[in-house]
Design a protein that fits this description.
Rossmann fold, Universal stress protein family protein, 277 residues, 2 domains, 21% strand, alpha/beta
């Protein structure tokens, strides 16, 4: 891996997300490209809301557009300082336009994208992941990592595996992007409805896992409430890196079975890696 995108609202830089991006940059010897987003086509947020998110106090009497530029410059300066202190090389892109579309365009030319699931360009309060984060997750053309709000290292990798092409693709993408983690413990978490055997859970999969990782454990759970069992297993666990398959689904299947990644992103404070098949 060579290029990691760090996604940030130009007004509100998330320090924890950037610190985690730098950790991944050092781990993989990759450059961090800071993508600072300015929604110049339509700004629905009030000046007061922007001031609450900014890293520096407002200058009295300054027009909003000028104040936003000051916020952006302050965030870029902070980005440079943190990257330099963290020992990672960096690039800066300032994108003006519709934020999600700009990020998706950038993702085509990146190896990995790191973002904060609470990033929002809306004037109203949103759930996590926000509409912006959901659109990026669904349409990104490279794997996405949702950064944790706090990070204290990685002791274990959890592969959420359901036997599908998407889950196997995500596992392979993770292994190829993070070879430095091959000595971490790997838990393959397979959850299936009672009395329904897991498809794609075979000797070939086991062989592949042991080629790429030194310590592998299989955890099989039978539960008719697949999403609930997944949340119960992950909730409260620390120092894990969660790997899941494709986020996006068609409208009908989303209504019938909501995407299991959404509550994990909302409630589990651990990094989540998501890749599309």
């Amino acid at each position: 891996m060579e290029k990691i995108l760090f996604i940030s609202d130009a007004v509100a830089l998330n320090r924890q997300c950037l610190d985690f991006s730098c950790y991944l940059g050092n781990l993989t010897h990759s450059k961090i490209t800071g993508v600072f987003l300015e929604n110049q086509e339509v700004e629905l947020r009030s000046g007061e809301a922007l001031q609450e998110m900014a890293v520096c106090p407002p200058v009295p009497g300054t027009p909003l557009d000028v104040q936003k530029q000051l916020y952006r410059e302050e965030n870029i300066s902070l980005f440079k300082n943190i990257c330099t202190t963290g020992g990672v090389t960096y690039e800066i892109h300032i994108n003006t336009g519709m934020p999600a579309a700009e990020v998706i365009r950038e993702s085509r030319y990146a190896d990995l994208l790191v973002m904060d699931a609470t990033t929002s360009f809306s004037w109203k309060t949103e759930n996590t992941p926000t509409a912006f984060a959901r659109e990026v997750l669904e349409k990104s053309e490279c794997p996405v990592v949702i950064a944790p709000t706090e990070f204290d290292g990685i002791d274990e990798i959890v592969f959420a595996y359901n036997g599908s092409k998407s889950s196997m693709f995500a596992i392979k993408q993770f292994a190829h992007l993070f070879p430095a983690l091959r000595q971490k413990k790997v838990t393959v978490l397979g959850i299936t409805e009672a009395a329904r055997p897991m498809k794609g859970y075979n000797d070939l999969f086991d062989e592949w896992l042991h080629i790429h990782y030194d310590e592998v454990e299989m955890m099989m759970i039978e539960d008719d409430n697949v999403r609930g069992a997944l949340m119960e297993y992950l909730f409260g666990r620390e120092k894990i890196f969660i790997v899941m398959g494709a986020y996006g689904r068609g409208l009908l299947s989303t209504i019938i079975l909501p995407n299991p990644a959404a509550p994990i992103i909302d409630l589990v404070n651990q990094p989540v890696f998501i890749a599309h098949y």
